[in-house]
Specification:
alpha/beta, Rossmann fold, 6-stranded parallel sheet
Length: 338
């Protein structure tokens, strides 16, 4: 059986779709899964266990210059790659016009079908063409976690019951991480490295820099090294501000997503705001505290384990206008004891 997953962006959404791939491979032995994703996320999806082929899209870029010769050429090559295979099931996990277009262009095998969402769920975007294109439009509960949304849609489309426990299947190659990143804790005799994920695309999700500095100081005092990833020059400057005058802090260089996955794999934990990189840390099964200024952790935060006897080692902290350092620190200590 051949299945095509359409989940184009963004980083957190792509990570949240990974458990659905693991479900499919468990439920349907021998299944072959391809995935269409925006090119920037291609290195990450290649690290998702169970994905056979990753097809890169540049829809974001093409929309900026739709009529240039370069765009027309790239669009033609994309269609050719997309249509190399015939699929028994094309599953649109995005629910947007752009993902509906990709689903519509994909080729079906005899008897194959396109599946998609029939309705919008809370906190997620939805556009009508996604329903029009689907041969089978599946209705899901309006109040549903982002991970469960993708898992339920795939299970209903392909006719299986969700397996447990949940797995992301995101593979980190720790031995491939840069030497200066993976040896910092051992070189300095620390208990381990904790990634502080302060960067986010929305300013109202940020945590005050002064709070980050105090949290980093407490981690250093407790014997942990602090590492600070970033995705752009502004975030890099914040990283350097947090690390300033700390004995055990390292600002990471800018890295592609596969290298960043490897680097995160060397950490013993993470503390971060609601962002794609925080969700990557969840997928890597790192002990983690996620910081929320809005009561939306039910939709994107770490899910509790499906196993009754498993102690949680990932959690979210919510408060308005923002969680305190003491609240986040106590949550971190609780994660360590777990």
């Amino acid at each position: 059986m051949k299945v095509l997953i359409v989940k184009l962006s963004s980083l957190g959404d792509v990570v949240h779709a990974m458990p659905a791939v693991q479900d499919i491979t468990r439920a349907l032995p021998g299944v072959e899964i391809d995935w269409v994703v925006e090119r920037g996320f291609l290195p990450l999806v290649r690290r998702c266990k169970g994905v056979h082929r990753v097809i890169a899209s540049d829809l974001r870029q093409w929309r900026k210059q739709p009529f240039t010769a370069a765009t027309r050429q790239a669009w033609r090559l994309f269609k050719e790659e997309l249509r190399q295979e015939r699929y028994d099931a094309v599953i649109d996990l995005q629910g947007l016009t752009k993902s509906a277009l990709v689903s519509w262009m994909a080729r079906l095998s005899e008897g194959g079908k396109r599946y998609g969402l029939a309705n919008q769920t809370e906190g997620s975007s939805f556009e009508a063409p996604a329903r029009w294109v689907a041969d089978v439009a599946i209705t899901l509960p309006a109040h549903i976690h982002a991970v469960t949304r993708s898992r339920e849609l795939c299970a209903k489309a392909l006719g299986y019951t969700l397996p447990f426990p949940m797995e992301f299947g995101l593979l980190a190659l720790v031995d491939k991480a840069p030497v200066d990143i993976k040896t910092i804790a051992f070189r300095r005799g620390l208990r381990g490295m904790v990634a502080l994920v302060h960067g986010t695309s929305r300013a109202d999700k940020q945590w005050p820099v002064a709070y980050w500095r105090e949290l980093a100081r407490r981690l250093n005092d407790a014997g942990f090294g602090v590492v600070l990833p970033h995705g752009n020059p502004a975030e890099e400057q914040v990283s350097r501000t947090i690390a300033h005058e700390l004995e055990h802090a390292q600002v990471w260089p800018t890295m592609a997503l596969d290298a960043l996955t490897d680097a995160m794999g060397t950490c013993m934990g993470a503390i971060g705001v609601d962002s794609g990189l925080s969700h990557m840390a969840v997928a890597l099964d790192l002990p983690q505290v996620q910081i929320y200024n809005f009561d939306t952790a039910w939709r994107t935060g770490p899910l509790p384990s499906a196993l009754a006897d498993q102690v949680p080692h990932q959690c979210s902290v919510f408060a308005q206008p923002t969680p305190t350092v003491d609240g986040v620190w106590q949550a971190w200590l609780d994660m360590l004891s777990a």
